[in-house]
Design goal:
Arc Repressor Mutant, subunit A, alpha/beta, two-stranded antiparallel ribbon, 334 residues, 2 domains
């Protein structure tokens, strides 16, 4: 039995140059390639065409645009029975000019949601979910260049243009380009645990986690930074998470003033030193819950979160589940 069936909606034709191919390739890469040494079985991937006919060949006066017609193994009927449905993007005309989306696509999305599928959009795919009414009353996002149009066209959607992705449980949306990869790795983390997601991210040579702007699973990944002066002190901090570390301790070890250290770490990681420390401590707790049968009290000590009650408080707030529930779902020692 696979980790789940993922159905990806593919437009009948893709315009180039555009970001369409990039965003289509993300779920294909994450969910479509078997990873038997990381987790077996892996996902089953379906590419489902909207059934649109390719347009006319571009003329000589249109050198900036080429069109690529794709053949897929499924039509929109392939959305039926899928555990997860992903809409990577919609045609530019549907975003910029308000051209209607195919009614068959909208109906298929509604049917899939009603059947219990987890619905996901990358970038402008949010326009399809919104047109289907699946984002009404929900918080959602898209590429910041299009969030204004999304909010104006669908006033029932609570559009947030400041986040990488939004997880509403059964409906998830992401901003454009690499944020779509962040969301897909987040789905793997939800389904198979932080260890599997981190291993996959390492294989793809990308950060295992970027904060999406809401409660989510965190990990021990090294921050994306070109600030070589921070590397040694952050490595040292990760090796001593069981200590009561403070910003002043880290700044002193980095031979910086607390203010300079705060500014450089925030610029390098996108978060504050205290939040970075909390993320690392939670990541350590996740790893221990997954790989050991240590009691929660001991995990609190080793991760630097202190008492079992303090560990539970931060775990529920940031991860969304209690440590015991997380262990039941993702423990590799069970």
């Amino acid at each position: 039995m696979s980790a789940g069936t993922v159905a990806v909606v593919v437009a009948g034709e893709i315009s180039l140059p555009s970001w369409d191919l990039y965003e289509l390739s993300i779920p294909c890469t994450v969910f479509g390639k078997r990873q038997p040494d990381i987790h077996d079985p892996w996902y089953d991937l379906r590419l489902c065409s909207t059934g649109e006919e390719p347009g006319e060949e571009p003329g000589e006066d249109a050198p900036a645009v080429a069109r690529l017609a794709l053949r897929t193994g499924y039509g929109l009927d392939g959305l039926a029975g899928a555990d997860t449905v992903i809409v990577p993007s919609v045609p530019d005309a549907c975003v910029e000019d308000g051209s209607p989306l195919p009614p068959r696509l909208i109906g298929a999305l509604r049917d899939a949601h009603d059947a219990g599928a987890r619905m996901v959009s990358l970038c402008t795919g949010a326009f399809a979910l919104a047109e289907a009414g699946l984002l009404d009353g929900r918080r959602a996002t898209a590429h910041w260049m299009h969030t204004g149009q999304l909010a104006a066209r669908y006033p029932k959607v609570r559009v947030d243009d400041s986040v990488l992705y939004v997880d509403e449980g059964d409906v998830l949306t992401s901003a454009g380009l690499t944020a779509g990869l962040d969301l897909c790795l987040h789905l793997v983390r939800r389904d198979l645990g932080a260890h599997v997601a981190n291993q996959l991210a390492r294989r793809m040579v990308v950060p295992a986690h970027r904060h999406g702007g809401q409660a989510q699973f965190v990990d021990l990944s090294v921050p994306v930074t070109d600030d070589e002066g921070l590397g040694p002190v952050l490595d040292w901090a990760r090796a001593h998470l069981d200590r009561p570390l403070t910003v002043a301790d880290l700044a002193r070890r980095a031979a910086m003033s607390p203010r300079t250290f705060y500014r450089r770490l925030q610029r390098a990681t996108g978060t504050t030193p205290l939040q970075w420390l909390l993320n690392q401590r939670l990541g350590r707790a996740q790893a221990l819950l997954e790989s050991t049968d240590l009691p929660v009290e001991r995990i609190g000590e080793l991760s630097g979160l202190g008492t079992a009650n303090n560990l539970r408080h931060h775990f529920v707030k940031q991860v969304g589940v209690a440590p015991s529930d997380y262990r039941r779902s993702f423990s590799r020692t069970a």
